[in-house]
Amino acid sequence: MIGLITNLSNNTAFLKHKLATTKSADLLKATGGNTGNVAFVHAVQSILADEYQIIEWGSNPEVINQQFDRLVICCANQIGSHVDLANWGHRLEKFNLPVVLIGLGAQSNIIGNIPEVPQGSVDFLKTVGQLNANSVHTNIATRGEFSSAVLAHHGIESSPIGCPSLLFSKDPYLGQTCLKNQSRKNIRIMVPAGNPYHPSGCIEKKLVELVNAYHGEYVLQHPELLFNLLLDDGMDITESQIELLKKVYPNFNSIEELKDWLKANSVFFADAPNWLNYSRKFTTVIGPRYHGVALPLQVGIPGKVIAIDSRTEELALTTGVPYIGYQDVLSSTTDELAAMSYWTQENADHFDSTRRLNSRRYVDFLNENSLTPTAHLSTISKE
Q: What is the pLDDT confidence band of residue 186, given thresholds at 50, 70 and 90?
């Protein structure tokens, strides 16, 4: 039996009992601080054929050691100066089971710039290496070459095979399906919103204009500030946050106007299936949230990532998703930005070949770590 550790918190109970009346803090707690996490967790579950049970970091170590054979951890962009994973290392030592990491990423402003990594995180990675049941192959799958280079800088081996969020569709020619679907005449563009605190927040004005011009929806993932406006009626927002919002969203004459617009034009999801099904309404998707683009792709809706840092660029590069830099958005009109969201035949072919290669790599990685890939993953890898 596999013990699966996610970055969600009692998400199933939240969906059943709290979602309909949720406040922003409860939503982000259930989704690990970013609703995009539900996409990644769903993806990991979709590629594992083994029986598993979701467990928590705070679970009793003795019970975990007795009930499970190995652990699989759904990771995120957790290697960098922004987080210290020392506590994770201590817990793994207590669990004392073979462990596999999937989707680990490094955070930097630019690909190639090795970030500072706290000693606690380095020690955690070394503990993961000590708990590798296979002495020949690595037990760490990263989001790409840059993340693996950061780990190698600290003497840690890993496999740069990307995010599995592009792998849970069973369509082996998903890129061709995306290309075909963009010919629909009723144009609607799905826009994963960015982060007003990030330097790339300067593009949100353009994204709002895109939503307005193309019957779109502004998909919220993070941070709590935006959910506060939508779900908490702007309660407890500080003066400095108000000034930030005015700067990022000059489209609106007041915070009340922004709040009303969000209530009319934004949407969020706390589970992947509903996100996937809702995405079918749109012809294309474009935005600075990788998973906000990856999910619509899985139901055949083409689109592009607006790369804002090493994380988004690396994910797009490794998985074959077309992307543009956020500086390109600033110099584009609304119509030009809409046109950028469309795919060419070359985009579709590259996406399919990259997805096929990553499927093979994931099949190999799972087998090397005594895990069983699902049948559809093996099928994609052989096409």
A: confident
Task: With residue 310 as reference, give the H or E element that holds it.
Answer: helix 310-319
The beta strands (E) that lie in the chain are given as 2-5, 52-55, 70-74, 77-79, 99-106, 140-142, 159-160, 189-192, 217-219, 266-267, 284-287, 303-307, 323-325
pTM over 0.90: yes
Whose CA is closest to 76, among 88, 68, 94? Answer: 88
64 close to 55: Cβ distance less than 8 angstroms: yes
CA angle 30, 36, 40 (to 5 degrees): 95
CB-CB neighbours of 257 under 10 Å: 12
The DSSP element (H or E) to which 100 belongs, if any, is strand 99-106
Q: What are the structure tokens assigned to 346, written together?
A: 């070359």
Which tens digit of pLDDT belongs to each residue from 210-252?
A: 999 999 999 999 999 999 999 999 998 999 999 999 999 999 9
The token duo for 26 is 């409860």
Q: Which tens digit of pLDDT belongs to each residue from 40-64?
A: 999 999 999 999 999 999 999 999 9
Maximal CA-CA distance, the chain: 61
Q: Which two tokens stand for residue 145?
A: 């070459």
